[in-house]
Give the backbone structure.
Amino acid sequence: MKIPTSRIRALGSSALIAVTAAIMLWTTGAADAQLARRTFSDTLEVKNLNLEVVVTDRDGQRTPELAMADFTLYVDDQPVPIEYFTEVRNGDYVHTVERYSSQGVVAGEPSGTSFLVFIDEFFALDEDKKKVLTALRQRVENREWRSVDRVAIVAWNGQGIDVITDWTTDRKAILAAISKAIGRPGLGHDRQTERQELGVALDLADLENTASSGDDHFRLDSNERAYAELLANQLEGTVGAAAAAMRGLDQIPGRKAMVLLSGGWPMNIDDWVGRSPSRSIEESRIPSGADLYEPLAETANLLSYSIYGVDVPGDLRSSTSGTLADFLENELHGTLRFLSAETGGLPLIDGDRISALREIGRDVESFYWLGFTPSWIRDDARHGIRVKVNRPDITVRARAGYLDAAPRTQVAMAVESSLLFGMGRPSAELKLAVGDVEPAGDDLFYVDIEIEIPIAILTIQVSDSSYDAEASLFVAALDASGGRVTIPPTPLLLSSPVPFPAKGAVAHTLTLTLRENTERVAMALYDVYGGKTYTNTITKGEADGDTTGQ
């Protein structure tokens, strides 16, 4: 029997569920005995926040031997108590106030750092990427790497994240992973071709003509608008991939740093596309600036990652000059500076890109660890953080704030990561089957996808009068150009006055309207009471009717 469908449209930057989800329950045997009482577990709760604070003097040198009393911590400009305090000096832990040790470490022990190297192949030119990675490999070959430091390397190609190596301290494994990453293609030339095919020039003459036109306000033309929307979609996907890499590789102790090898993320898309470093673009609805990159910064701050943005293209003045070079540099460097400033890291720009590993290694060897417990409200409010040191001529660097994420927000963030950029294998428990595929006109097609959810994977909440389960189904699609559409979650609510059969299942059918160039459809089921996520995917060949889901 065919289950009623929910028609989902996934054509642009937004999606629409037109029909409320319908589910049915069937059994394969008699009802089981009374289920054991289950309790709700909030697995996403974060109680404490750690701050890595770098303190330097007027010469840029680290300032050691500060006491906890030298620091004042402000949240939204209000002082809050520092609950634990530890100094890391020259790579070793130092307990300035022992009873406030934040990590349960011993004075004199080395403090390892976990470096997550995120390679943005999607926007990087191949030659630039290889140059920076070759320099990185040389640093490791020269043993400019502490044995206690962990490294994980992931690459993003616009379709998914490839984990080149999971966390490891093994020098040979790190070198092998870097060599593998060097051999992978950079796809930045494809991004240039996309711009050219839409007739959006970005050359010095065009920029100077635009800047000298005397018009302080203008609108993007149709080609520029199309390219801006494409670029925004691609950047949202790439930023989401970087955030997902942090979440997927978060289960690691100690200080964490993301080494972001970016081929160039413009800070303001409208200015970038419109070739306008000085004029405002009217009626723009393109996500840009902080709105575009804040989710990555929030994820980093939530998971205690500092971002070290590496300028992979390097000094653009070697190939261009004057107005264009300044414009390009400001746009690309602005994003790196924003992400680094928000998370307490450093931007490594122009010449520094080649010595990125060395510079980052130095930066994480000496700092102070401050911990506090926010007044969690879970209302999705952003809170500013400021650290003051009671010493003259001192510069303090720390992350700029944190997000008091609501449970639903945290779930959505985690589920979206596992949907499109999950690090592990698809869940065997969540079964997908592709049904009918029908043309929908205008390079679109309909695909029926049936999802089977075993009752056994759901956590049952038992009360005196009912047995309840709750889940949310998330769906997302990725096209060949890196565009991503996430469908609003579909709630699945089950309630029964008698125990559910252990071998029963919930069936749900979606009819997706997809573009012809859709490469992947990903789904995730979040078990609300149990806090677990189950994922599965369907690739392009499967959507054409070749096989069932993975």
